[in-house]
Design goal:
By secondary structure, the chain is mainly alpha-helical. 40% of the residues lie in helices and 4% in strands.
Length: 154
């Protein structure tokens, strides 16, 4: 019982001491500065001084993106996920035979170099006079051959 009484008195002293410390801290000046008063907002627009320039510098022009070649545009049309490789699925199921002829290393991935080499060969074979220019007739030879339609619906 005596222990309980001593414990109760000690708890009262501690609570009283805590109250005194709390009150003494409340009476000290705050270390946090008071916020400034709100600025007065007027409806008038600011006016420039008499010596202010009337025209500022022109905004910078954005850089121009490099124009892609025709072959890069054609390649990008098939490269749907933009990983610089055309997969068999991207090339479409109806173009499987054409894909196999372009995929020279047989890894089922078509790189731009493989694509460019095949189209370069097609250009060279179409350029009859070897002047590095294609006339309309020569250009028509680069078009893929259309398969012959069957004569009957058998």
């Amino acid at each position: 019982m005596q222990r309980m009484l001593i414990g109760g008195v000690a708890a009262l002293f501690m609570a009283g001491g805590g109250l005194l410390v709390w009150q003494s801290m409340a009476n000290q000046p705050s270390l946090i500065p008071a916020p400034p008063p709100p600025a007065v907002i007027s409806d008038k627009l600011p006016e420039a001084g008499a010596d202010a320039p009337t025209v500022g510098p022109a905004p910078p022009t954005p850089p121009e993106a490099p124009k892609a070649s025709r072959e890069e545009v054609r390649f990008n049309r098939y490269d749907r996920n933009r990983d610089e490789l055309v997969s068999r699925l991207e090339m479409m199921g109806s173009r499987t035979k054409a894909f196999k002829t372009l995929d020279t290393d047989g890894n089922n991935l078509l790189t731009f170099e493989e694509w460019a080499a095949a189209t370069g060969q097609r250009f060279a074979s179409a350029d009859g006079n070897k002047d590095q220019l294609l006339t309309r007739k020569e250009f028509a030879r680069t078009r893929p051959k259309t398969p012959a339609k069957p004569g009957c619906r058998c």
